[in-house]
Amino acid sequence: MKFSAILAKEQHYRLIIVGGGTGGCAVSSKFSRLLPSSQQKQIAIIEPNRSHFYQPGLTLVAAGMMKPSQLIRNEYKLIPERVDWVRNAVRSFSPADNRLTLKDDDGGDMNLTYDYMVIATGLELRYDLIEGLPNGQKSVLEAPGVCSIYFPDGAIKTLAEIKTFSKGQNAVFSFPNTPIKCGGAPQKICYLAEDIFRERGVREGSKVIYCTSLGAIFGVPKYSNALMSVVKKRGIELYTRLNLSKVEADKRIATFQTLDETGQVIKGKNVEFKYNLLHIGAPCSAVSELRKQAQQKDNNLTDAQGFVKVTKMSVLQNVKNSKFKMSKIQNVKIQMSKPQNVKNSKKYPKNLVDPKTLQSTTYKNIFAIGDCANTPNAKTAAAVSSQLKALTPNLLAAMQGKNLTTSYDGYSSCPLLVDRKHVILAEFTPNGPLETFPFDQSKPSRITYLLKRYLMPPLYWLFLVRGHWLGPERMRKMFHPFASADVVKAGQ
């Protein structure tokens, strides 16, 4: 790997990767091996950050199950020798001209041009969208009783808040009405905190409240039903269609908007909760550079929210325009094992199910991977592995002038920690469950906990970000050798 030392104001690359997170590192590693030797010196990855965090481990840090130092690596160790690391931040995209404008070290502009580009910018944490938290992460760290596992210091503070929680107090956990990294994380920390409260002897007389902006605790009926059993057994109060909109740190009051079935705010129906501990599931958005791109009149790169268009419609539009209704329950405490908030169906609306090449709908030399794409999958590291399996042959085919033939099926996975020893391993596509192992993964399991805690971190560092891990499809076929493809895909 070569550090960014570009003296000229113009530089050209065969392939530029924007973003050095999970997807960006995986693509740079993969293509440093795949491109012909004459082209291997023509790859650049743009990433200003010097550190790379294993984000799935932040929940474990917040529960005292991992140390923060176990989650961090130097970015340079993850970038191949044959790839230029450009540490400058992107100012703007000019896809029609195959050009990126970056901030140079003197505050001016530097232009990079490319033959092909992969956008892997991930999501931006947006605590500032909540009234009372204007400074984002800084506000979260400064507000008494407020915490969030979505960044390292926030995870450390979450553990401190859990340890100082007292008997008879209220712990409130929220899930936002925006895109989010790992949609299962806000409820994972809810279950883990409740487990720790019991161990510390402070659960009795206390309230544990989970407020989600969705109509169900989880979007896949099989896992939603299993999680509702956990909620009922543990005495957790669940409220649906509530979105955290305001935090009054001095009064320790959290205000939630009431949402209708399309996710729109119902005016005049706010709900307030007093809290001693408030965990915020981080609101997220596309990164600022892509949001700016979305505002340009001639923009064809992103949708209106700033997500790279590799589908005809954004996820939000798909949900709004479908006939799929998750629940008519609003602000009702749910205490049941088989919720009515999810239709008892194995399939999502058809217009959400659209296999993707991950190629831009307008610019055929641009691809996207990970959270920045407007694909309808859950935004997780597991999704990146399966996306890489589709993006790799498709990008190579585009480079060779061939047709794109490989589709991403929408696979994602979420190991849902229900306590410090058991995991519900949710694996799914927009069509429903897509399980790997030969047992019912909706049941809390010690085996899947061990996978989450001890196997997945090295799988991430040694295989996924190195471009070697393309998802569990081969394992799935091995565990289901006599099952038809349809049966395996249904998770049966």
List the helices and strands and how they pair.
Layout: E1 2-3, E2 10-18, H1 22-34, E3 43-46, E4 51-53, H2 58-62, E5 72-74, E6 83-86, E7 90-94, E8 99-103, E9 109-119, E10 123-125, H3 137-142, E11 146-147, H4 152-164, E12 170-175, H5 185-200, E13 207-212, H6 221-234, E14 237-239, E15 242-248, E16 253-259, E17 265-274, E18 277-280, E19 284-286, H7 288-294, H8 315-321, E20 366-368, H9 381-399, E21 412-417, E22 423-429, E23 432-433, H10 446-464, H11 473-479, H12 485-489
Parallel strand pairs: 1-6, 2-3, 2-9, 3-6, 9-20, 11-18, 12-13, 12-18, 13-14
Antiparallel strand pairs: 4-5, 7-8, 8-9, 10-19, 15-16, 16-17, 21-22, 22-23
Helix pairs in contact: 1-9
Q: What do these coordinates show?
A:
- With 492 residues, the chain is an alpha/beta fold.
- It has a domain of 160 residues: FAD/NAD(P)-binding domain, CATH 3.50.50.100.
- The chain is 27% helix and 23% strand.
- It contains twelve helices and 23 strands.
- The strands form six sheets. Strands 1, 2, 3, 6, 7, 8, 9 and 20 form an eight-stranded mixed β-sheet that branches. It has a five-stranded parallel β-sheet with strand order 11-18-12-13-14. A three-stranded antiparallel β-sheet has the order 15-16-17, with no helix packed on it.
- Strand 13, helix 6 and strand 14 form a beta-alpha-beta unit.
- It starts with a strand and ends with a helix.
